[in-house]
Specification:
The chain is built from twelve helices and eleven strands. It has 324 residues and is of the alpha+beta class. It has one domain. Strands 2, 3, 4, 7 and 10 form a five-stranded mixed sheet that branches. Strand 3 and strand 4 form a beta hairpin. Helix 7 packs antiparallel against helix 9. The longest helix is centred in the last third of the chain and has 21 residues. The chain starts with 18 loop residues before the first strand and ends with a helix.
Length: 324
């Protein structure tokens, strides 16, 4: 399995054409650019969603400044700030509302965001991940698609020269248990530094041009990216990402059971793509004690492990039947 970026091989060792950036704004040195809701309201701006706009100057706007704790796997609306300035989890009812947007602590001028994205990305969405990964966290690598907004340095960004559907597949790969298991051995402290991210075993883009028995004739790229869009596109502020991936419908409803099933499908597929047997996958899943404990507390069993192994068995049966 190749690593994400092998610097010893030059351009040939960077199959994804990836570059990193420590967010767009440093939460300390760039703090002079940050504005609070009270400041913007005093200036006469109006809040639309989570963007402050100047009714007399349509080009002027202040975009939300995302922090790492606001995102999670396939979820750019994981946490939001309340009026007291504290963060809280976004409620189920809020997630089920496609118009709901998170409230940040600060906002930054749109022109500053555009300037920092110049020559980096022409997309209206970003791929960010959490910098902090402690040993008492449920998972190590937590990446998500984000709207094109301000992003703090605690949420590093990845930029690519690949097709959006391929990037969607990379998001799924980064979110898989198979990759996460390896990542925990590489993180020695509490930071997922760039040099560590570069060493992660990541499937190359060429993988997704092929098909598998369980994809029913579709390429792996089509099969995986359609599921990533379904998981990520739950609100209107990620419409650009969905359109770039070829989906022209409305946001998907937030259905917890459906999301569980889709995520298990993706994890089962990546265990297979990494070449793990069912016994090996079962071992890996048993090394995620917090996931197991939460499942047992809520459902009475480690249902994540059970469902992933069931899907792996079905995929193996499909492959066996295809080869007969």
């Amino acid at each position: 399995m190749p690593i994400l970026v092998n610097e010893s091989k030059g351009e040939a060792g960077n199959a994804w054409g990836i570059s990193f950036r420590q967010g767009l704004f440093n939460m300390t040195s760039d703090s002079g650019l940050f504005r609070s809701a009270e400041e913007l309201e005093a200036r006469g701006l109006k809040l639309e969603g989570n963007v402050w706009r100047d009714e007399e100057n349509e080009s002027a706007a202040f975009l939300p400044l995302y922090e790492a704790k606001m995102l999670h796997h396939f979820d750019h609306r994981w946490a939001t700030y309340d009026e007291a300035g504290d963060t809280r989890d976004v409620t189920l009812a809020e997630k089920q509302n496609a118009d709901f947007v998170v409230t940040p602590r600060y906002w930054v001028e749109k022109s500053n965001v555009e300037e920092r994205l110049k020559d980096k990305s022409d997309k209206e969405w970003l791929l960010g991940f959490r910098d902090i990964c402690r040993n008492n966290d449920e998972r190590t690598v937590i990446a998500s698609i984000l709207p094109s907004v301000g992003v703090g340095n605690n949420a590093p960004l990845m930029f690519f020269d690949k097709e959006p559907r391929q990037v969607a597949c990379l998001v799924a790969n980064l979110s898989s248990f198979a990759l996460d298991w390896v990542a925990r051995f590489k993180v020695g402290g509490v930071h997922l530094n760039f040099f560590i991210a570069q060493q992660l075993p990541v499937l190359p883009p060429s993988t997704y041009a092929s098909s598998a028995a369980w994809t029913d004739g579709a390429t792996l790229g089509e099969w995986i990216s359609s599921r990533v869009v379904e998981l990520c596109f739950t609100a209107h502020d990620l419409t650009a990402f969905a359109r770039d991936c070829g989906f022209d419908g409305e946001p998907f409803g937030w259905d917890a059971e459906r999301r569980f099933e889709v995520r298990c499908e993706l994890d089962a597929a990546f265990f297979a793509l990494y070449g793990l047997s069912m016994d090996e996958a079962a071992y890996v899943l048993d090394t995620f004690p917090i996931v197991k404990r939460k499942d047992e507390a809520k459902f009475g069993s480690y249902r994540t492990k059970t469902r992933i192994l069931e899907l792996m068995a079905a995929m193996q049966s499909s492959s066996a039947a295809k080869n007969v």
